[in-house]
Amino acid sequence: MRSSNLGRLLLAFFLFTSLSSAWPWPPSIQNLEGLMNRRANPESKSDTSPAETGKAQPTKVDSAAKTASKAVAASGTGTSSSKNAAKTKSGSTKAAKTGAEKTKAAATKTQSINPVLPPGGVNMITPSAQAAASYYKVSDYVTFAWNYTSLSVKPSKIDVFVSCQSNSATYTLLSNATFEPTASVVWDTKPEASGTAPLLVETYTLVIHDASKDLTAIPQAGNLGAYQQFYFGMYTPRAYTALSEGWKCATCSGAMSTMELQTLKFMLGMCMITVLSFTWFAGGFGVLF
Fold first, then answer.
1. C-alpha to C-alpha distance for 215 and 168, rounded to whole angstroms
2. Which partner from 73, 233, 253, 266 sits 20 to 30 angstroms from 134, CA to CA?
3. What pLDDT is attached to residue 35?
4. What is the model's pTM?
5. Can you give 147-177 as a three-state secondary structure string?
6. Beta bridge partners of 122
7. 174 or 1: which carries more pLDDT confidence?
8. Contact yes or no for 221/152 (Cβ under 8 A)
9. Which residues have CB under 8 Å from 124's CB, separation 6+?
10. What value does the CA radius of gyration of the chain take, rounded to a whole number of Å?
11. 193-199: long-range pairs with CB below 8 Å, 24+
12. What is the mean pLDDT of residues 170-186?
């Protein structure tokens, strides 16, 4: 019984297989099979002709021309890129140098100074600081020479001028002059060369200070402060007057002065007191009588 059922089952299977292989495939399945074959073999050419698609196929000459133009464009782009790269490199180098110089300058300007150090000063050489009061005649050449003391930060430029308080005038000797450890200047005091205001018979002040700072700025440690401690006088000589023409000395006199007269009186008084005292003591002891 079982064998007969198995035989029937096998017979039905073989019959179904024969019918399915003999049955024709639908058109959609055939198109799908061709598409799969073309994808499996990429070197196969399409059966579609130029006439069917309506588009012109590129020739070998056109392809070569396009390839050449692309190569030229690529070459131009490469050259331009090289130039831009060179310019960028050059600019970077210049920027690096500029940055290094600025850093060096900043390091020089911001050097540390001990705050307990005194401000920089000026030591007069001509005329000497230990000399007596100096007087100069108007229209003469006046020479000033000096050096610096306690100076840790050297100024790049200095200003030197003479000021007079009576007429509030200044006479410039040096303006934005380069700093030198030992400096000097010659001042021509002639009226046409002395400045805008005429020189008076007065006391003047020599001023030396850092040109980059204000004259009233507070002096800092190691930096040059405004020097205004040298005073001198200017005078104008009078015309000569002979004695026969009536010249008189305002401070000359043949009489004794008040001080001299008082001194003489004091000396005479002391002499009289001494004589009288000696006479009285000697008479008391019987020396004289």
1. 15
2. 253
3. 54
4. 0.49
5. EEECCCCCCCEEEEEEEECCCCEEEEEEEEE
6. 148
7. 174
8. yes
9. 144, 145, 146, 230
10. 59
11. 194/138, 195/169, 195/170, 195/171, 196/169, 197/164, 197/167, 197/169, 197/171, 199/138, 199/164, 199/171, 199/234, 199/236
12. 95
User: Token pair of 202, please?
Assistant: 């007065």
The residue that leads in pLDDT, 92 or 51, is 92
pLDDT in tens, 207-245: 999 999 999 999 899 999 999 999 999 999 888 888 888
Q: pLDDT of 15-32, one tens digit each? A: 767 665 555 555 555 555
Residue type, 117: L
221 neighbors 114 (Cβ within 8 angstroms): yes
Q: To 5 degrees, how large is the angle CA 58–CA 61–CA 63? A: 55
What is the rounded distance in angstroms from the CA atom of residue 172 to the CA atom of residue 150? 25
CA 153/CA 133 separation, integer angstroms: 32
- Per-residue model confidence (pLDDT) at position 45: 46
